[in-house]
## 1
Amino acid sequence: MTESFKKEIVQRIIKNLLDIQLLKLIQTQPMWGYKIKKQVETNFEVKLRHGALYPLLNALEAKGFLASQKQQQGGRIRKVYNITNKGKEYVEAYDSVLKEQIQNKT
Amino acid sequence: MTESFKKEIVQRIIKNLLDIQLLKLIQTQPMWGYKIKKQVETNFEVKLRHGALYPLLNALEAKGFLASQKQQQGGRIRKVYNITNKGKEYVEAYDSVLKEQIQNKT
DNA sequence: TACAATATGTCTTCTTTCAGACATATCTCA
DNA sequence: TGAGATATGTCTGAAAGAAGACATATTGTA
């Protein structure tokens, strides 16, 4: 029971706090959209539409949480994202809130 | 900056994972809708519409996460909610997922 | 006695979000 | 050379969610 609850909760977090998960993932290493999609799908066992992902990545860049540079390999262009200091602060704030949630200090 | 980020994240969690926050609150002590509303509003500094709260509480009871009994005091009726074992399991699963989030074991 | 607070509920309109299609181009392997 | 994978983007119709009104009754206080 608890295991299925956990899967459900993970899915809810991915759905509602996807941007933070992306920041966390890119924080481990710079990554481009397509790879992010595959990583999220294998890590969390969820489907991630590219039609949802790419606009979100662009929005995170516009907000200053991510910075991108285009890498060209042959004729193929990859938009590689790095996390910014602002992005790292957001992730730190998230982890801080989660700790309070667990300790019930809210 | 981090503080305003924290407020934003708390608001997002309340918005998207309100049911879990209600379970956590009722877990500390049995409570009725109106008191829950006031508690959430002071604890998290957010506004909680009663038009959103009452249907959610009823839904949580229908799912078996909460159980209610009506307490009559004079002519006034309070619907006091208790958390069920199933509800406790859901909260445990949530805390477990949060721990994994912090430790990046996801 | 009138107003604010306590107490619980529904319902409609508006807004936001979501799923999936539409669109294009390269690369690899059979 | 054709199919599947890589790679990134937009757009629209449908579904879900939110805000606020509508609804009713009691209690306490000025």
## 2
Amino acid sequence: MPLQPVSPRSVPDEVFDQVLAEVVDGGLEAGEALPSERRLAEVLGVSRPAVREALQRMAQTRLVEVRHGGSTTVRDFRRHAGLDLLPRLLLRGGGLDAAVARSILEARLVVGPGVAALAAERGGPALVAALTAAVEALAGTEDDVERQVHALAYWDVVVDGADSLTFRLMFNSLRAAYEPALEALAPLMAEEVGQVGAYRVLTAAIGEGDPDTARAAAERVLRPATTSLLTALKALENSEE
Amino acid sequence: MPLQPVSPRSVPDEVFDQVLAEVVDGGLEAGEALPSERRLAEVLGVSRPAVREALQRMAQTRLVEVRHGGSTTVRDFRRHAGLDLLPRLLLRGGGLDAAVARSILEARLVVGPGVAALAAERGGPALVAALTAAVEALAGTEDDVERQVHALAYWDVVVDGADSLTFRLMFNSLRAAYEPALEALAPLMAEEVGQVGAYRVLTAAIGEGDPDTARAAAERVLRPATTSLLTALKALENSEE
DNA sequence: GTGGTCAAGTGGTATGACCAGTAGCCGAGA
DNA sequence: TCTCGGCTACTGGTCATACCACTTGACCAC
């Protein structure tokens, strides 16, 4: 096993995670009031600034509402939280959350072809060259994890080609959710990233400049693994209940 | 003009916004180091905790990288920031950013039909009832702003029906970007939200349970206004250059 | 060159104090 | 009895300061 860089967890990080877990896993219902900052600091055995920093970050994520003079209350994260919360929800409670993973796969299958279509509309020769290079990198390795990384890099180029800030940020958020689990998912995704041919077809389709062709090609890249993973997850979800 | 609730801007908020503007508008390049917290506090005339809180929030948004003992450096927000940054980018520099608005419209056109298809797969009679109620609320007003609000509520129900956490959070993020500009956009979106018939057709399509029908119906709801707005924005973008 | 040491600078954390806004109690007045 | 006003206790907001922990780079011994 390769050495991993150590990542020291700061006190506010710790507090943030604990409060987040309470909110997300239902220990605290929406509308409920949190203990005061002083009280929390006392209970957790940390200083008030540390608590304060954690709560402010919670507020930024729209998970709680902090009111000067009043108490801090929990908000309904399903109604207000943004896509940046996805990584936290995917890894909730130690393992992968099957329902969240399913929804990510579904979203990918919707967004991917849309992005490819836009890239086809807007890309030029430079984009095709970058895509080709990315495909060759993908073809140049046999390792499943490395292939994952190269596939991700390929889509990164596609997103660049789409020239859409919204899709770019969306992709960043999804990638942030995906990357921590990348290694664990490598065997499951091997089927997809091993089909270099499909990526070549997609590259050519984008190069042709026809959105519909690109859309279809992207779907052919994403659909097979998505389908098989979804059925696997469905079995998992049912067995959990 | 109706009275607006005052929203007191805290010191860390102010600092956050200033640093954010520097990073997003290019005053600080990616990789560049920020002044130290003490120096920033001195320059801005605030305390170090205030600066610290702002920087931590920047770090949470993945706009800067804070290293203990080292200096805080700017990251490339296009490469790392998540969808939660969208509202800030849309309203960059006082007005609406045309390129960002365009990308939101494009994303909407891709994601909306996808969500509708999922809702058709999973929704039952209860969903249709909720959708019908939402359409009736939409039909019950003539005011453009109110219609906007009701249309948003309608899509909210669709997203619920899709039973996908990813799309739910995505919708929340897009709505957070959209809502501040809702009033300004009302006249432009009037064309879309006035077509109650299209919403009824979409509702029926979702009720039928056929994803493809629902997808097509959703596109018929979204496409017309999207197209006309895109051409308007294109003219705007060109005139800006 | 390699590794060790050290000082300076940076972020991390804690403490304590005080300011500012909220909410509820409670008495004075209608 | 009701209502208004202010008082009070509690909450979050901000600050100054001190000290800890880490990184960096220079310098030095090996």
